[in-house]
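Why do we care about 3D structure at all? Because function follows from shape, and shape follows, mostly, from sequence. That is the central idea of this module. The next example makes it concrete: a single protein chain, its amino acid sequence, and then its structure expressed as tokens.
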Amino acid sequence: MRTAPSWFDRPITWLSTWNVEKILVVIILLLAVASRFYMVGARVMSHDEVNHVVPAYELFQGNGYRHDPVTHGPMQFHLLALSYFLLGDSDFSSRVPAALFSAAAVIFVLFGFRRYLGRKGAMIAAVLFLISPYMLFYGRYTRNEAFIELLGVVALYATLHYLETGKYGSLTLLTAAMGLHFTTKETAFIYMAQLLLFTFLVFLWRVIQQSWPSEQTRKRFILLMILALGALVAALGLAIWNAALQNPPEDGAATMTQASEAAAQTLQLTPQLAGEVVALALAAALALAGAVVLIRNLGWEAIRSERSFDILIMMGTVTLPQLTPFMVSIIGGDPLNYEWPGVLVTAVVAAIFFGISIVIGLYWKPKVWLGNAALFWVVFAVLYTTFFTNGRGFVTGLVGSLGYWLSQQGVERGSQPLYYYALIQVPIYEYLAALGTLLALYFGVRYGRFWQEAGRAPADIPLPEVPPMEPELASGEEAPAEIEVKAVQIVEPAALESDEGVERLPVLALLLFWSVTSLVAYSFAGEKMPWLTVHIALPLLLTAGWGLGFLVDTTPWKRVLERSGLLALALTPVFITSLASVFGSILGATPPFQGKELVQLESTNTFLLGTLMAGLTGWAILRFLKDWRWGDLLRLVTVTFFVILGVLTARTAVTASFVNYDNAKEFLVYAHAASGPKEVLRQVEEISRRTTGGKNIVVAYDNDALYPYWWYFRDYPNKRWFTDKPSRDLRDAPVIISGESTMGKLDPIVKGDYVKYSYMRLWWPMQDYFNLTWERIAPALTDPKMRAALWQIWLNRDYTQFAAVTGSQTLTLENWQPSSRMDVFIRKDVVGQIWNYGAVPVTTGEIETDPYEGKVAPLTPDLQIGAPGMEPGQLQAPRGIAAAADGSIYVADSRNHRIQHFSPEGELLHMWGSFEDATAANAEAPGGTFNEPWGVAVGPDGSVYVADTWNHRVQKFTAEGQFVTMWGYFGQAENPDAFWGPRDVAVDAQGRVYVTDTGNKRIAVFDANGEFITQFGEAGMDPGQFDEQVGIALGADGLAFITDTWNQRVQVFAAEPGTTNFTPLTTWEVYGWFGQSLDNKPYIAVDPANNVYVTDPEGPRVLKFDLNGKFLAAWGDYAVDAGSGTLYSGVAVDAERGVLWITDANGGRVLRMPLETLPLP
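And the structure:
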């Protein structure tokens, strides 16, 4: 039997009491702390972190904490509040608890697992935890994973220690770890299922090995257990199938309301759900029958003496009440329904489960069970109720946690593919752990080491004899002495105790079981997110520590430290890297021997040089180690290979946590905060300090920017949050922060008074790995350029070659997609004081004021028609409106793709139209079908003309909606009827039809049947030129009034007498129409006196001018509720009846205002 390598225990010359092991331990401890705390506060608070820090801050402020299953368990919030109390509230203190737990996990592995991994194995495992990209990144992240990192390794240790010693202190430690896990995150249910299943298998193996009264009953018991496990597996499979059939509300985290609705949908009795219930019932019946057989044949006392049975009973009874939501769902209830009588059903099921747990626990071992159960439930109650200040928390913890988590499985947050962990996350980040696990599996199979004695290194047994290499002897040279190696003794699990009574433990079996089941469980779970890789990596790292410890213990270090061994060791990295260079040149973008161009010659040279170096170093290694055995030689090469992998893994971890921590290049995050929000925060802090002397600045931010500014503006007393329907009162704020949901909507509000800066707010990893099929994989493997591109992504997170191969334009940080940007508006008077935020000083002068401000009267209609919806009489984004001679009105119901005809009093008279896209391939789009009609007009004969905007045509109907004719197609005015998104239509007294061909920057004029007459206008800013002309109205004397939107003016054209030409008559500016959003499209109407009425959609207001552009009046927002977000669009005048009609696109309604009662400002 080999002894431990002496180098590990060799004392340090200048520190007599210190040896190599102690020095390494100190280095690991220092690195564990330094790596977790260095720059821990630098990264911007991510979306998920904000959900944790804000409630914790409220708890710290004395406002209490109310458990919400959406943000998982309460332990983290209490630890964060404690951190704020001790260290103050900051990004740094928010991540201190995670950093402490992650560093503690490294330390615990280092010392706690020495009995099960060996001294070197435990040290290697600690190093693996130290440099693991996932453990490092999420050890510096305000999520639950860092806490579970420690709780997970403690639970595995306690399991092994109790199986070894049977000491109840270990069982109490296990109870505490699992109890805290249940107060941390719902992954506790997966951990508990793994623990119970493994200990159940160990228990089965133990009892099967015992002496039975008859072989027949033993086989009957085995058959019953196999059938029970088969039924359980079938139930789980049906549960996964049933969850996959449900329709998720949306991508992303569901709200509690959505979760309840999803749960209710899941309760519908399907064949899969019925099969699931039957399979569970069958599994329970078979397990019960097996238990009866077992008790009758072995006796209760023999069963109670099994330590694995103790774990089963203790953990099973504390978990059973928390399965209440699962049982409520099975019997047809909704566990998330806290209303009567739903809560009664849940309470009855919970009471039954508590009763069963108490009876079983007291019958098993009363004192042991009571102590552990009290520990579990006291911790649970204290944290979920926040020290008994929130009684509802116990219920939401007991029922809501699992209930919400089950409902989320149908939501499939992230929508990641099944192979997300196995082919993406683990190979990119945890490759060292995965390969180390495979090495451990090899050693376990090769040497029968799935069970081992505690307190001894896994390799602390004789190794099998391996034939030595035949050395080449020089003349007169004697062969080296044979090294005596005993044959290995394969240890069977049946030998549960050695002759000395030392318990043999399933250490490797447990670690491998946990690794495989973790990968399977999280791969099939509905929610697949990057951070869940932590739970897969945890057992892989421990298993890799076992395997690499075995490798190190069985490597002949005494011979390695000889002169020939050291020379061979020095050459081994050169050999491996040279060999990698050879394969890299063969598989790279430019294989060798492909031509005489410089790049091709360089590839050939790399291949030849690498081959030469690999051959020479390989030959030299063999010469230096000519008297070594092949197995020892292979071990040395393997050690070197894993050292190189360790360096690469450490580089990967450092790059992810300290280099790419605020950009989109990494895959181990999801919604990843960019650096922009923190840069903006620094600017706001300085602006506030320099303008208010503190944090009293008025800063407004929208729903998108709520993350992270919900946290960052926590102590700004004048912060203001606004919805996706901003209003004018935002102009009071010197700083406005806008996400994508309000981009464009703020332009009419800020107008020219603010300077805008754009930042990246949030981004996600590239998602080209979605929908992988062999048809996509095979070309990637055979294309040298693609292989080289993928290699650069894996090694350096460099997407340049991949973008070139795929033609992608969205893989640079400047234009990365998917991403989300934000705009920051700083008022010009503030910029004038704090000019250093621009590239050069900004000279602002006077702030431009709104000439209509203070002159806008409330708009109070006497009739409102319609409501949002799709039913007859309901409207979705009504746009243009036209008044007929009889006083009725026609409304372009754009998003319902129809025209609706109402009487003057709002009665629906006619309705026609349906959706058809004329631009789609093989589309017919017959007359009477529309694709968002925006404009409508009535001719002198009562005919109705419609601008069928996105079918790029004009249609003519009778007054009742019968189709007459149509003309137009999509084009760029190459022909008169080639339209590009016509927005409006008008008809003069002679029946001529005027069309605003918006995209082509012209007005086209046709006769009543679509025959072309003339056109005028072109792109530009001069008179007679257009930039997004939308509305058109015809006044007295043949004048044409047009809203020239992006030029922010009204243009008036007159027909030249005796010709078909139109020339600009006059123009005036409109202080409005600032935004370029799809909705900001103003329409226009003219009364007989040539008074002009225009809408300012995002104002929202209606403006009145005279013929020369003199402002006369304005009428402002009319809303039936504060959140309606009025958006005035179309406008029409019925002069005969003295009314003004206005469409509200957001409100889905039409408003009527009597002209004589319109209040003047």
